[in-house]
Specification:
It comes from Billgrantia bachuensis. Belongs to the transglycosylase Slt family. It holds the Pfam family LysM. The protein has 385 residues and is mainly α. It is 42% helix and 7% strand. The protein has a two-stranded antiparallel ribbon with strand order 1-2. The chain has a two-stranded antiparallel ribbon with strand order 3-6. α3 packs across α12, α9 packs across α10 and α16 packs across α17.
Length: 385
Amino acid sequence: MTYRTTRQWTLALAGGIALIGALSATSPTLLASPHPGAAPAHSSHHFWDDLNLEYLPGDAWERLRDNLEWHDRRHDARVQEWIDHYRANPGNIAEIIERARPWMAWINEQVELRGLPGEIGLIPFVESSYDPLARSHRGAAGLWQFMPGTADALGLHRHNGYDARLDVVASTQAALDYIELQAEQWYEGDIELSLAAYNAGAGTVNRARHAAAASGAPSDYWHLQLPSETMNYLPKLNAIAAIIDDPEAHGITLPEIDDAPAFAKVPVTAPINLAQLANTTGVNHTELAALNPGLTNGTASPATVDEVLVPIEQEEAILAELRAPAQSTPHEGAQYLVQRGDSLSAIAGRHGISVAELRRHNGLSGDVIHTGQQLEIPRRSLAAR
């Protein structure tokens, strides 16, 4: 079956063709784990477990089920093989779902807004085990596993302590754009072929289609001769969808996830240090950092990003802190514990202040500091107001 998208493109047609041409000329852009259920080692406890969220009877899973479209694919023998694989490893699926908790509802919403099959929201299960910090040995990174060249072509920049491939909001929008754009440009709206190209590269898929046509064979995804990783790509995706659609039948217990985003977007109008923001507002720093994995040095600047993500239930308190006038007492500030390898210049840069100011604030006469030393960071550097 062919699925046609209806979203109006913001890219001009010529620009879209140029983009696809550049991407299709490269080697495969993304890496899918050979065993998507085999997630990286993590503690069984996640800080999201401690959030005091009130779950609604109609949760994110119900919304996802309503948008699943590829039910017929589950009868394919390859899909059944992967269903059996996942059923034999239910703990891995459960752990991946825990990592998906803060993102699932929002990604479901983005997929739904574009009129795409709900299965698209499960691609991070296959690509990264839903780990925003996942990196492959081939250089792919993030929830959607973008290679550097593909990321550059899609505007996912990496500079000044920021990697947009790790930014869940930015990378999700880019991934959905990419999937839709390839479907329209190459495959007459066929999302399944676009997903194959997402994994293997459009050049690989197009060559396989030309070979199939030359031999008189069908040229849809399920009949093509593609690399084994790509031939397993959609079976894995459909197997995960089948399990989520009826978890009890497959021996899987899904945690309840509210059908509303777990985070809010706060505009960045001045430099923000996440550690200091957490310290002054009482927000869990680990939680705040996990919501902003693209901020690789823990700071946000208007020159780099437009917004940071914060826990939805603490949005008002954080906004109030960022909008508060500068304190009149210059020596009120956050504490920083010097780590191995730190220098005054590095610490000052991370907090958006000068070395001279850091020296003066802490009564230092030189640049010598030692591991374990406690420095006070001027409060006004949390956001240069």
